[in-house]
């Protein structure tokens, strides 16, 4: 007869053997993050082409670029209410439809509509991937595996910028140049259909989350998945009993479950919302959505501005790798504090550099010193964000909430994130024309605020099992 302790030792021995399978299903789920990153940032290279094609100004440009974010808030709000795999497949279909529609729009508002549809897919992916990964990952590896989501996002961002540059180069350095009957910017938006199809295929290959299966009463399937994830010698029945005991009284996630306390929502939900909102208010997506036209506005040509955007994306990947290596070693809170401090300093440096800008409209220029400081500060800002808040927020949202409210709370927090993202994105074109230096000073103030928020309200979740979150 095998004792429980012997079973536990065997399970730990089996875990490395199953880790390859867990990594595969985690990576497949994180492909939604790749599409999230690609589809949300590909607009960066297409902005000038869209402006030229439809003859629109800053206000309309801001609305088109930010339109996807409104759909993202809606998608994030709905994603947590249904199963995991089914929702991944739905997101893949929406990504594909949006890509085709955005590729051949008839008007700027037609394009905005397709972007809203793609945004819904982005919102779904922002919720379902961290939820699924947190529910299948062994506690020991959960932080690093949860980091796959952000790694996939930054890889998607980098690939979109590389594709944008390659397409612009193929069209003689002009995003309005023609390639196979379409303008280059149209191909930038349309190529997203390829990873969308791959995402759908992979989603059909991976198992459903054991926690969702147990909550749906599909215990035989849950046993199979748990054995695949934790090894044949794991105490599967014990794990099922443990999870079932926690969710026996559970029901489809409802927002009323999040209510409580003196401030309307449960305190832990407010912390999740705060993390989500601060992640966006520091202005990170200004870099990913507008960097090409930002650098063009200070005298850099279109092709080189796209290459600078790609370099920033590579730095983003490097910072994310650092975060993945550290998140389970030094913890979530220390990384967030380091990132907040670094972002505050670099954004302050960028604000100083842009205060020396001269000229108006499309003729704004920076002195050589300030131009160099702005470029270095922008890239260091991306690095500090990537090695901290870019990863930590998604890890925290996937694991900080109690089981009974996790999906619903994550949906609310992600929706708040997309609303904040939309506010920053839609306001930047007008704010940058008003006072670029003041705009970056505001972002620096939010970075400082994020430091104080983390120090006061964020609790460390390193090494804590999901079942013990409370």
Description:
The chain has one domain: Growth Hormone, Chain: A. 76% of the residues lie in helices and 1% in strands. The protein is built from 18 helices and 2 strands. The protein has a two-stranded antiparallel ribbon. Helix 14 (302-326) packs parallel to helix 16, helix 15 (332-354) packs antiparallel against helix 17 and helix 15 (332-354) packs across helix 18. The model is unreliable at 1-15 (pLDDT under 50).
Oligomer status = single chain
Distance between the termini: 36 Å
The major sheet is characterized as: 2 strands, antiparallel
Mean pLDDT: 81
List keywords for this structure.
about 475 residues; about 0% strand; Growth Hormone, Chain: A; mainly alpha
Quick structural overview:
By secondary structure, this protein is mainly alpha-helical. Helices cover 76% and strands 1% of the residues.
List the helices and strands and how they pair.
Elements: H1 4-41, H2 43-54, H3 58-79, H4 84-103, H5 108-136, H6 142-170, E1 178-179, E2 182-183, H7 184-190, H8 193-203, H9 210-215, H10 219-230, H11 236-247, H12 267-281, H13 284-296, H14 302-326, H15 332-354, H16 368-386, H17 389-399, H18 406-457
Antiparallel strand pairs: 1-2
Helix pairs in contact: 1-4, 1-5, 1-6, 1-8, 2-7, 2-13, 3-5, 3-18, 4-5, 4-7, 4-8, 5-6, 5-17, 5-18, 6-7, 6-14, 6-17, 10-11, 12-17, 12-18, 13-14, 14-16, 15-16, 15-17, 15-18
């Amino acid at each position: 007869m095998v004792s429980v302790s012997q079973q536990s030792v065997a399970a730990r021995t089996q875990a490395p053997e199953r880790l390859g399978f867990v990594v595969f299903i985690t990576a497949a789920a994180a492909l939604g993050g790749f599409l999230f990153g690609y589809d949300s940032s590909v607009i960066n290279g297409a902005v000038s082409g869209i402006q030229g094609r439809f003859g629109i100004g800053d206000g309309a440009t801001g609305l088109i670029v930010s339109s996807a974010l409104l759909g993202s808030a809606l998608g994030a709000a709905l994603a947590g209410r249904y199963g995991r795999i089914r929702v991944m497949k739905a997101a893949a279909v929406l990504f594909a439809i949006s890509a085709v529609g955005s590729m051949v729009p008839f008007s700027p508002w037609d394009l905005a509509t397709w972007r809203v549809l793609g945004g819904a897919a982005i919102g779904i992916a922002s919720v379902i991937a961290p939820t699924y990964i947190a529910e299948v990952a062994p506690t020991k590896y959960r932080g690093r595996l949860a980091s796959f989501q952000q790694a996939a996002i930054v890889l998607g961002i980098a690939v979109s910028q590389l594709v944008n540059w390659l397409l612009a180069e193929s069209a003689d350095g002009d995003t309005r140049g023609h390639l196979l009957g379409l303008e280059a910017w149209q191909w930038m938006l349309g190529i997203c259909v390829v990873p969308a199809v791959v995402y759908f295929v992979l989603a059909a290959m991976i198992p459903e989350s054991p926690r969702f299966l147990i909550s749906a009463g599909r215990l035989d399937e849950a046993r199979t998945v748990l054995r695949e994830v934790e090894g044949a010698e794991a105490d599967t029945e014990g794990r099922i009993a443990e999870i079932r005991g926690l969710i026996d009284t559970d029901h489809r996630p409802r927002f009323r479950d999040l209510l409580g306390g003196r401030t309307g929502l449960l305190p832990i939900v407010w912390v999740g919302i705060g993390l989500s909102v601060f992640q966006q208010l520091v202005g990170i997506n200004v870099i990913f959505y507008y960097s090409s036209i930002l650098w063009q506005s200070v005298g850099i040509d279109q092709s080189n501005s796209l290459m600078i955007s790609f370099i920033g994306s590579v730095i983003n990947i490097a910072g994310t790798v650092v975060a993945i290596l550290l998140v389970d070693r030094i913890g979530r809170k220390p990384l967030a504090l380091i990132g907040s401090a670094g972002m505050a300093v670099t954004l302050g440096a960028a604000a100083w550099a842009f205060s020396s800008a001269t000229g108006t409209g499309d003729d704004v220029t920076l002195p050589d010193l300030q131009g160099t400081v702005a470029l270095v500060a922008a890239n260091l800002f991306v690095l500090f964000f990537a090695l901290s808040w870019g990863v930590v927020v998604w890890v925290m949202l996937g694991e900080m909430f109690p089981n009974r409210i996790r999906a619903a709370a994550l949906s609310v927090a992600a929706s708040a994130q997309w609303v904040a993202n939309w506010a920053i994105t839609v306001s930047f074109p007008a704010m940058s024309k008003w006072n670029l230096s003041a705009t970056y000073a505001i972002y620096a103030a939010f970075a400082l605020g994020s430091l104080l928020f983390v120090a006061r309200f964020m609790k460390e979740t390193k090494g804590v099992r999901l079942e013990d979150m409370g």
